[in-house]
From TrEMBL, chain A:
One of its GO terms (cellular component) is plasma membrane. This is Branched-chain amino acid ABC transporter permease. It holds the Pfam family BPD_transp_2. Belongs to the binding-protein-dependent transport system permease family. LivHM subfamily. One of its GO terms (molecular function) is transmembrane transporter activity.
From TrEMBL, chain B:
InterPro entries: AAA+_ATPase, ABC_AA/LPS_Transport, ABC_transporter-like_ATP-bd, ABC_transporter-like_CS, BCA_ABC_TP_C, P-loop_NTPase. Pfam families: ABC_tran (PF00005), BCA_ABC_TP_C (PF12399). The lineage of its organism: Bacteria, Pseudomonadati, Pseudomonadota, Alphaproteobacteria, Acetobacterales. This is ABC transporter ATP-binding protein. GO terms for cellular component: plasma membrane. CDD domains: ABC_Mj1267_LivG_branched.
UniProtKB/TrEMBL annotation, chain C:
The keyword Transferase does not apply. PANTHER family: ABC TRANSPORTER ATP-BINDING PROTEIN (PTHR30482:SF17), HIGH-AFFINITY BRANCHED-CHAIN AMINO ACID TRANSPORT SYSTEM PERMEASE (PTHR30482). It comes from the Bacteria. This is Branched-chain amino acid ABC transporter permease. The keyword Membrane applies. It comes from Rhodopila globiformis (Rhodopseudomonas globiformis).
Amino acid sequence: MLQLVLFNVTNGLIIGAFYVLMALGLSLILNLSNVINFAHGNFLALGGYIAFVLTPYIGFWGALLVAPILTAVLGFVVERLMIRRVYSRDPVYSLLLTFGLAFIIQDVCRYIWGPNGLPMTVPDVLAQPLSQNLFFITGYRVFMVAVVIIAVAGLFAFLRFTRVGIRIRAGTLDLDTVAALGVNVGLLRSLNFAVGCLLAGLAGVLAAGQIGLNPNMGDDVLMPSFIAIIVGGVGSLTGTLLGGLLIGVAGALTTIVWPAASEAVIYVIMLVVLVVRPRGLMGEEGMLT
Amino acid sequence: MTMLDVRGVTKQFGSLVAVSEVSMLVAPGELRAIIGPNGAGKTTFFNMISGFFPPTRGEIVFDGTTITRMPVAARVAMGMARTFQITEIFPELTVGQNVRIGVESALGLRQRVWLGGRDAAAVRQGIEEALVMTGLASKAGRLVGELSHGDQRAAEIATALTLKPRLLLLDEPTAGMGEHETYAVANLIRRLHRNSSYTIVLIEHDMRVVFNLADKITVLTEGKLLAEGTPAEIADNPAVQEAYLGKAE
Amino acid sequence: MSATTAVPAPALSLRPWLTAAIVWGLLLTVPFWLPLVGGYTALAARVLVMGLAAMSFNLLLGFTGQMSFGHAAYFGLGAYGAGLSLKYLAASTPLAMLMGVLLGGLAGTLFGLLIVRRRGVYFAMVTVAFGQIAFYIAYSWNSLTGGYDGLRGFVRAPINLGFTTVDIANNDIAFYYFLLVVFGIAVGLLGLLLASPFGRTLLAIRENERRARFLGIPIERHIWLSFSISCAFTALAGSLYALLNNFADPMGLHYSLSGEIVIMAVMGGMRAFWGPLVGAALFVVVQDYISSMTVNWMSFVGLIFVLVVLFFPRGLLGMLQGRGSQ
């Protein structure tokens, strides 16, 4: 029983880690640019496929480093070419735009790499279980969680200590003032979008090593990521972090007692939060609307 | 008899005290102007009266009822209407539609999906009155967003008037206007005050408008009440001259 | 939000009554001209159903200014409500429609309570998440809904009018006109609603929420009412969709359909009453054509989204009618 619980908690933390990576990226973009990136799951898939293509040349470790960066570059280009054109308009347009992009990217992946799943091999070091008793904890799972922790810590450090990061945070609170101080807000938003895509790309590489690749691999993570943001409280990255972990672990623990309800519990948590605490766990009062 | 009784209101935003212990008594039919340099807390003071947010401390009594924490809709129902520093209108609707929405809301018809003949006539009459009073009758069919700045402001006032308010709050009604438009809006306010005996509280930067129109003037600086009195008293007040008028352009 | 710059008058101006006349003229004569241009009646039926869904949705987007990205849920609930009613309750088409409207409308009314204080993209995000709850229930409640395969095993029943029976079950043209009658009644009600004092309060909320609030309009309650009404009419469209296909599909609840409903409204013109119908016609026909031509139809559908947003944001009727066209 203990082993079963441990197994599911580990699972939940890993799933939660994916939600966190995705939701943090979505949150960044939402907070600064007021855009819901419906294509975020597709940037995840792109990250995975790029790593898949690169691995034969630069190995898994090289791909782990380069693929997220290339995903970020793609995100930067997409933002510059299209998304920034609609910032000044009714928000419905940015949603429709990213919605359309999601369709296109998914179909392009299917066209290039085929509709069926592709396997991605990870280095042998990572494929071994940690021990006999804890057979379910492969090195790769520990590794994934470690990478996510490093990435999240890196993101928070970036936002706290770098000039761009500080400006992103300031812009989230009051974009007009930041613009009035002479900051190039357009570029700031592009960079911020790229950072969001970087996180999605990283999630994609990690997911590819765990479950393999397919064109809609990001779809299953998109909706829980939305819910992580709603539960955590809009406007708060810490809230998003907590929200992602909470629904990941809650879903996995539910699997122990009632496997069929593991997805339902995520929605139940959201409903409870919306009824009991509409601004979310860490959301500020004023961020409700 | 008092229409509005503001008792020592204070508003704090975090550590910033925007308004501190300000009181004000407004009699029925009075036109009160609130003046003060930028950042004096005038709009914050206004926002507490109109229900945009509640004061941190203090009390507000409107026509005998304590309204300190009453929601906006209830204040409106009691007969309070306001305009904003940046004109707030329905830009993609016509002047007539803007006013109509106010009239229908004031007549309690806002959840109706059908208007009977008598209601329809009352609505038409309300629209007519507001348009005539503000001189917009000839522009009823124009989209408000396409009107001049002054006419947009007049449309906003017309919409507020449809509520037949017992207290009309005007936040810088001539802000950003040219000479001609300022004159027109000031005239409109004078008519509302003299001919229709509206009780009006307004924030205004244009001193000619203030000293020509107001019965009494309240002067705020740095969130505090500096002086209160008739235009003549305020003009002669040395503290006001030093703190405010002396520095004016 | 307040003072906006003037937009140049459109070169070609289409009056609203003229639009209505053209729309009704075309709809009433579909079975006569559609085959001549290579269409088929079932396609026109789909246009009517999706058009009603998009027009119902647009009560919220175009006329209340609130952005739901989860309307497929209420469409799908309408479809399941109708399907389940036909399968388990009685072989009655009107009852099926009623059950569909009740299921979708009540769900919308309840969810609406939780979202009325949110605005803009946050409103959209919560509506998407709510929509996925309905999707999730439909595909996991296998025993009732048929799960991922969808709900089958029901057929629309003929309509008994007392003096005669209309065989909508087998006669496609009769069914088309049946849909047109329901569509006409629903759209007529939507039109009356928009022209009423209540409808004007919705326009007021869209145009300037602050001004509306200071005119004494209870914003949250009216957004909630608008949301609920919009969901109920969307559910009616969903129930018609189930009747059309004799099938209810979990993908009919999925958020990708929500996105399609939004793009229909926008590409036809969300500020024009008939815009969403025009958008639905364009979208349904183009999608039908593309998906018969290529397996990569998703790219083209995505491209439609991108092109509309970047180059035709006001939609077809928006461009033809110019401003102030309600």
